[in-house]
Amino acid sequence: xxxxxxxxxxxxxxxxxxxxxxxxxxxxxxxxxxxxxxxxxxxxxxxxxxxxxxxxxxxxxxxxxxxxxxxxxxxxxxxxxxxxxxxxxxxxxxxxxxxxxxxxxxxxxxxxxxxxxxxxxxxxxxxxxxxxxxxxxxxxxxxxxxxxxxxxxxxxxxxxxxxxxxxxxxxxxxxxxxxxxxxxxxxxxxxxxxxxxxxxxxxxxxxxxxxxxxxxxxxxxxxxxxxxxxxxxxxxxxxxxxxxxxxxxxxxxxxxxxxxxxxxxxxxxxxxxxxxxxxxxxxxxxxxxxxxxxxxxxxxxxxxxxxxxxxxxxxxxxxxxxxxxxxxxxxxxxxxxxxxxxxxxxxxxxxxxxxxxxxxxxxxxxxxxxxxxxxxxxx
Amino acid sequence: xxxxxxxxxxxxxxxxxxxxxxxxxxxxxxxxxxxxxxxxxxxxxxxxxxxxxxxxxxxxxxxxxxxxxxxxxxxxxxxxxxxxxxxxxxxxxxxxxxxxxxxxxxxxxxxxxxxxxxxxxxxxxxxxxxxxxxxxxxxxxxxxxxxxxxxxxxxxxxxxxxxxxxxxxxxxxxxxxxxxxxxxxxxxxxxxxxxxxxxxxxxxxxxxxxxxxxxxxxxxxxxxxxxxxxxxxxxxxxxxxxxxxxxx
Lengths: 379, 248
Ligand SMILES: Cc1cc2nc3c(=O)[nH]c(=O)nc-3n(C[C@H](O)[C@H](O)[C@H](O)COP(=O)(O)OP(=O)(O)OC[C@H]3O[C@@H](n4cnc5c(N)ncnc54)[C@H](O)[C@@H]3O)c2cc1C
What we know:
The complex is a heterodimer of chains A (379) and B (248).
Chain A: H1 7-23, H2 28-34, H3 39-47, H4 66-79, H5 81-101, H6 104-115, E1 121-124, E2 140-144, E3 147-158, E4 165-171, E5 181-187, E6 193-198, E7 209-220, E8 224-225, H7 231-267, E9 269-270, E10 273-274, H8 279-307, H9 313-342, H10 349-356, H11 366-378
Parallel strand pairs in A: 1-4
Antiparallel strand pairs in A: 2-3, 3-7, 4-5, 5-8, 6-7, 9-10
Chain B: E1 2-6, E2 9-11, E3 19-20, E4 25-26, E5 33-35, H1 37-53, E6 56-62, H2 68-77, E7 81-85, H3 92-105, E8 110-114, H4 125-133, E9 137-147, E10 150-157, E11 160-167, E12 170-174, H5 189-195, E13 200-203, H6 234-244
Parallel strand pairs in B: 1-6, 1-8, 6-7, 7-13, 8-12, 9-12
Antiparallel strand pairs in B: 2-5, 3-4, 9-10, 10-11
């Protein structure tokens, strides 16, 4: 494995920094304060090709590998983790599910719109009563002639309001049967398909999280991805890759917080010297740098496996678990390094601190990652 | 229209510049290289001209393999092909002569250089290429419109502008105004991907002729520390401004 950042990654990082200077950084505070999901910026990121990073060019995507995908999410997350989260959900969950399990006709129908962010995508697995235990879902689809009728609600769904299309996994069989669930694609405007309450969140406030509601929503048989009964198994496979996204998001948060702390520690003087000269601060920075490096290596290891098409359930879960915990720890320590200023909104670390917590929860909590890891190693 | 843009790979403006070997060699370690900003205005203008009138945009540089990332960035922005003359340029004449030799064999209707590169600032390459090829040259060009074979140009002069006309083929030294900063293009993912399959031709230099050679470099003296003058001590401030800073 080659650990060096490749030239594509450098160009992508450059591109995002250049774009962010004008289009993201000046507005981050406002979006956070007002819980605004910046749809226009999202569309512009689509024009840059960041909304179909892994999608082949014949479907309008950029056809890069997970390696470049990690860089893209990481760099966006350094600027604004909310944008990183939204990008991750759009790319690897919604678009990724259609890409992996859609038939040719379905891919041609939806991928070009998603890869350019002409359409924004949502992906719904979680429900009010089933999060970690997603397989216990109670939203159902019942066959009626050539159509299926969906009833129920999906909770905590990224882009539930602004999304133009949702990939949802719903029950079509018995509860407790892992083959009793099926994936449907539902387009905005389908009668009976609406969105509900938008969550007011601790962090990731510029990423929209809300409810998807199905009330006798009729969907054509053609909107099923793969086979009836495959939904849950598909979702688990989508999440295998999705874990790399959240790990990269955590990495971006950790890097952003660390960079801010490092810079500040050299500028802030107390007791006649830069605070970076105090061992207590210097060792914090040493820990941060080391943990970030370790997280990065775990992520690129998982990405490398994924690029080769190898099974990476274990590596993905390890990367997601570790990187998420590192994001929270580094962001917490960064606030400490900045002291009182770190506690104010004039510096970015308080936002990293709030945003970081999502990483240990979304797309499988840290506990669930440990469950996956232990299952893999114990058997 | 057939356009060639001369690209110089220069240190990012935020780089800390150092020299080694007793001040005779530039220390490139840890330096981020970018497309010379004046050349980027030129490249963007070339893309716009191509989009309007069709044609082809080539980018050319004289440099070793280390400049290839910058050339690929130019390809990612939209140039059709790149040429690298494989040599470390030693003076402006060497660079200009090599590019001119290439252009004699592979002519272009419009050759765009930057008004100067932001590292060595000699501002001579464009003019020398024009001289060697016996073509018209307009430096510090901040406006260009092309209609068939004739060009209307605008050039920055002290305190104003000069409007000129010339016929193609033509060499310009471009700068801001050719296009605005907001017109500059961020390469997108598709462009970055395509850049890898676009031709980047490497050709060997034809000569090793220099007209000048560099002996050593010096950095400006370090700025001295800031002096604070207490309120009520304005007389001291005046004395410092007069005797030390010598500004009044
Ligand atoms: C901002 C945001 C965006 C989201 N976006 C999406 C989206 O786009 N699509 C989507 O489908 N979902 C989305 N989610 C939902 C997310 O995936 C769930 O919140 C997550 O899976 C956890 O589920 P839960 O919240 O119901 O927690 P619960 O499952 O109720 O967990 C509560 C606690 O119990 C622990 N726990 C649960 N089971 C076990 C166990 N077996 N062993 C040990 N501990 C256990 C958990 O680790 C956790 O600490 C999003 C969530 C957030 C906050």
